[in-house]
Amino acid sequence: xxxxTLDLWVGLFVCAGIxxxxxxxxxxxxxxxxxxxxxxxxxxSFDNIxxxxxxxxxxxxxxxxxxVGDITFDNNKFMAKVVLTIDKQYQFPKDTTASVLTSGLLGxxxxxxxxxxxxxxxxxxxxxxxxxxAVVLENLISxxxxxxxxxxxxxx
Amino acid sequence: MAADNLxxxxxxxxxxxxxxxxxxxxxxxxxxxxxxxxxxxSGSGKTTxxxxxGGVMKARKGEVRVDGQLVNELDTAGIYKLRSRMGMLFxxxxxFTDMTVFDNVAFQMREHTNLxxxxxxxxxYLKLNAVGLRGAHRLMPSELSGGMARRVALARAIALDxxxxxxxxxxxxxxxxxxxxxxxxxxxxxDALGATSIVVTHDVQEALxxxxxxxxxxxxxxxxxxxxxxxxxxxEPLVHQFVYGEADGPVPFQYPSKNYSEDLRxxxxxx
Amino acid sequence: MSExxxxxxxxxxxxxxxxxxxxxxxxxFIALTLLHSGTSFRRFxxxxxxxxxxxxxxxxxxxxxxxxxxxxxxxQGYETLQTYGSESALGVLVAxxxxxxxxxxxxxxxxxxxxxxxxxxxxxxxxxxxxxxxxEMMAVDPIARVVAPxxxxxxxxxxxxxxxxxxxxxxxxxxxxxxxxGVDEGSFWSQMQSAVDFRDDILNGVIKSFVFGxxxxxxxxLEGYDAPPTAEGVSGATTRTxxxxxxxxxxxxxxxxxxxxxxx
Lengths: 156, 271, 264
Description:
- The structure holds three protein chains of three kinds.
- By secondary structure, chain A is of the alpha/beta class.
- Chain A contains two helices and eight strands.
- Chain A has two domains: 1-31; 33-141, no CATH class.
- Helix content of chain A is 29%, strand content 32%.
- Chain A has an eight-stranded mixed β-sheet, with no helix packed on it.
- In chain A, a hairpin with a 6-residue loop joins β5 (97-102) and β6 (109-114).
- The termini of chain A are far apart.
- The radius of gyration of chain B is 21 Å and the shape is globular.
- In chain B, the strands form two sheets. A six-stranded mixed β-sheet of chain B has the order 6-7-8-3-9-10, sandwiched between helices. A four-stranded antiparallel β-sheet of chain B has the order 2-1-4-5, covered by helices on one side.
- Chain B has one domain (31-48, 92-263): Rossmann fold.
- Chain B has helices spanning 46-53, 76-83, 101-112, 117-130, 146-157, 176-193, 204-210, 228-233, 237-244, 260-263, and strands at residues 5-17, 20-31, 35-39, 61-66, 69-70, 86-89, 164-168, 196-201, 213-218, 221-226.
- By secondary structure, chain B is α/β, with parallel strands linked by helices.
- Chain B contains ten helices and ten strands.
- The mean pLDDT of chain B is 85.
- In chain B, α3 packs across α4, α3 runs parallel beside α5 (146-157) and α4 crosses α5 (146-157).
- Chain C has one domain.
- In chain C, α4 packs antiparallel against α5 (90-128).
- Chain C is mainly alpha-helical.
- The mean pLDDT of chain C is 91.
- Chain C is globular and about 65 Å long.
- The longest helix of chain C is centred in the middle third of the chain and has 40 residues, at 142-181.
- Chain C has helices at residues 2-35, 38-42, 45-54, 59-83, 90-128, 131-137, 142-181, 185-195, 198-226, 231-260.
- The chains are: A alpha/beta, B alpha/beta, C mainly alpha.
- Chains in contact: A-C, B-C.
- Chain A binds chain C through residues 1, 3, 6-7, 9-10, 12-14, 16-18, 20-21, 23-25, 27-32, 53, and chain C through 45, 48-49, 51-52, 55-56, 59, 95, 99, 156-157, 159-161, 163-164, 166-167, 170, 189, 192-194, 196-199, 201-202, 206, 263.
């Protein structure tokens, strides 16, 4: 086999391979685009984060505006402390509410931000005051049963 | 004179495990410039001896000295340096099947020297011409006959003008014409290169016509040595049987077995 | 009776010690290969030549198999998802199955049977026809000249082949799902893009295929280099390459999956 033909085929092979990798990376997967964009970090404390995991999306009005960073347990307040990494181009007022929501009925959990009315915006390192914890299924069921039982009592 | 001996082997032993010794107390001297044959029946240890000289295996006991250097004591770099001054012709050529004849012969030059391709081309043609196969340089080893393959392997072995040529059974399986060619080449190349050659073979006829000195081995020991004339005149039974190709003698015809009548069950009464 | 028991125990013991010895030999072999890789990189042409034989010549089987696997995933996936009314998630199913598991694993299995066995047979035959001894006698280290280039060629081609397998598979799934069956094209791709994460899924798949590449090539070269120089020896070595590689791939796959995809 001629040396130049060999090189040609091998070159094509390597190109095709790298091309396939690029296709997979760009078209099939989603490169977490916020690796490159400038971000700032804010904190939020929750009674219960449910199934929230790091790198879960942070959405406002359904649009992804950031990612969840570290999740730690605050031993003083006995709450979950979550770091939110928000894209710099989105500014939120200081009285924004953060809730742990579920995508779909049984989907993964994410943080939803509902903007408040404050004129001052959150800066790097600020903490969100208003939070709503995740809906825990067991609590919901016991609530339902309890209310059903209470209803039954009042009916009697 | 010691300085005139290219190879000195003193009291060398070799074994794989202590129970089966391959070589026992070998003493051999190969003078410079000579063609020496090492002969013996299959399994006498001839190929092992070649490997000890080439540094592929290390002697368990004794000294193997090549050009003044103790082969047992050389490190890997030293052994590789020694080997680049040796050429070896393997039994069936052992050409690299994925390269052309030209690339095979050029192999050592490309690996060990920085010569430009033009010079390598000239040298390859030179070597191929010496074995009469310059026109075959484009062929692949699979397209060569046995004799041609062995000649190309010979050209490859002399690529770097070695001081020592080792031939492992060069006459095996060749037709009479190729035999003559190889025999001729071994002698001519030895004298032209000013090299020393060791031919391991059991082809008595070819060897005795070609070489200057003969060592005959049996069961791992050197049983006899001398010039070809001395070997032909040697009347020791072991040597005589080998040299004249007698079917039975000290080396028995029958493989060790039970008594013949026992095997045929004579004397047993079957109805 | 105790004679037989003693014999079995001795056989088990010998089997174990043989296994440990072999493992040590294998480790020494790979260490030597890596140590002597300098020549392969200085004369990159050696690797390129081997890349042709391991990579380029495996392309057809990888691409065709990838296509078919993707198409089957599309078909089977559609049938199952339809019962839950989630046909639009077909893209997710096909992409994740391929990128995480099927791409690296199946491509590695095919690579082992095609390129791995070829390498074993080639080196085994070189050993049987004394080509390796000839090389040694010419003061050229066969591990540096013959083994190391093939090792690096295998390691480089494996991730590329796995990526091509996955890409073809996704295309096959698209062909069957969107073009043939009629799943919505937009949701096929958009759901796929939101579900497949670059770091968690694609990168992990690439790491897997890299590990498989190392394992398969190592086994193939070891068996070839160690094969008895006879016809049965080489054929036995080739078979052992395919069997051992396949087991190694599946075993490594489990180990890698268990700590890659644990929390996701």
